[in-house]
Specification:
By secondary structure, the protein is of the alpha+beta class. Helix content is 30%, strand content 21%. Strand 1, helix 6 and strand 2 form a beta-alpha-beta unit. Helix 4 packs across helix 5. The radius of gyration is 24 Å and the shape is elongated.
Length: 352
């Protein structure tokens, strides 16, 4: 740890269990073998750089609740059926304590601030980005080309690269990867998942949204926007749907030409429908500029803290929330949305 960094209460408790719970302290290497993780992961738990997920906390609790885990100096994690009633009671009490320390003592809000892209557990994080259709992709994205570059087949590459770097920086000890929908394994559906981009090129967006039919925001095709899907909102009172579309402006002295001046971005976070202890985050837009705006809203060096403050005040600790917002485009450049500006916000929803 760097000078000035302080271990979290959970980190201190985990280190105390390993070094003082038994007469002879357990090494990080030995504990790592029991938890089936790398030794560096145990170290990250004890410095507060990462926090164990529920499965690892349960293993900690089971291990240190049962002195019989160390017969003849051979450490062994007892199975559930091997625990006595007293050991189960100690295990449950220790597990509750460790969960409480993790959920309320982890540094998810640096200097009191919300950090949307910090995940206070060791659950892997997967960014899923769409694939550009073969007809539109660069010839360098074909494996037969001598200068083959697979990244050239990724849709919404700008926001994906920016978000990947930011999430890695926020979660240095966590397994963070980007991939395309066909790369997702069965296990990875239960990780923290971030879907980047819309329905046309990212099948994973549609797949997850099919499990979340109660969300008030939907995306649909529209004849005026063949290269993207517009957003529609279903009013809670059963009234007529409201449509949110990109904006174009006539260019003076240029005949009947129009300039693309504004996209619509969408950011939502909900529990992962395939694992309710993990999260699903949607970063989307009608076009790619909207997707980039949805990402930069919380990665921009100057505006992200103000935007995080807005989300903290507006949604507090809601488990399900989302918002549609304007993404300005000035001289062809995507401008980061500022949520404090009422004109930026188009629609908001949450479960509280």
């Amino acid at each position: 740890m760097s000078p000035g960094q302080r271990r979290t209460p959970l980190a201190l408790r985990l280190r105390d269990l390993r070094t003082r719970h038994w007469p002879r302290q357990l090494t990080q290497s030995a504990l790592a073998r029991i938890l089936l993780v790398a030794e560096t992961t145990v170290s990250s738990y004890e410095t507060g750089q990462a926090a164990p997920g529920d499965d690892k906390l349960r293993a900690y609790a089971c291990l240190f609740a049962a002195p019989r885990s160390v017969p003849n100096s051979q450490i062994r994690l007892l199975a559930e059926e091997e625990l006595s009633p007293e050991e189960r009671a100690r295990r449950d009490a220790l597990l509750s304590e460790l969960r409480r320390l993790r959920d309320h003592g982890a540094p998810s809000h640096a200097n009191g601030r919300r950090r949307t892209w910090y995940f206070p557990d060791d659950t892997p994080i997967r960014l899923v980005c769409g694939r550009i259709p073969a007809l539109d992709v660069s010839r360098l994205a074909h494996p037969s080309h001598p200068n083959f570059t697979r990244l050239l087949s990724y849709a919404d590459l700008d926001p994906m690269v920016e978000l990947f770097g930011h999430i890695r920086a926020e979660n240095p000890a966590t397994d963070v990867r980007f991939m395309q929908p066909e790369d997702m394994s069965d296990e990875e559906f239960s990780h923290h998942v971030v879907v980047v981009g819309g329905l046309e090129w990212n099948d994973m967006t549609a797949s997850f949204l099919s499990q979340l039919e109660d969300l008030p925001v939907n995306q649909v095709e529209h004849r005026d926007f063949p290269d993207g899907e517009i957003f529609v909102v279903r009013p809670s009172d059963g009234g007529e749907q409201v449509e949110y579309k990109p904006q174009y402006r006539a260019q003076l002295n240029k005949g009947a030409t129009f300039r693309y001046v504004e996209d619509v971005g969408y950011f939502a976070r909900v529990p992962n429908p395939y694992n309710l202890t993990a999260t699903l985050t949607i970063c989307n837009g009608v076009h790619s500029r909207g997707v980039l705006g949805a990402v930069r809203m919380l990665t921009h060096a100057k505006l992200r803290e103000r935007n995080e403050d807005y989300l903290a005040a507006r949604f507090e600790d809601a488990q399900r929330y989302g918002l549609l917002f304007r993404v300005p485009i000035n001289a062809g450049r995507t401008v980061t949305p500022e949520l404090d500006n009422p004109r930026t916000r188009l629609f908001e929803w949450s479960d509280v």
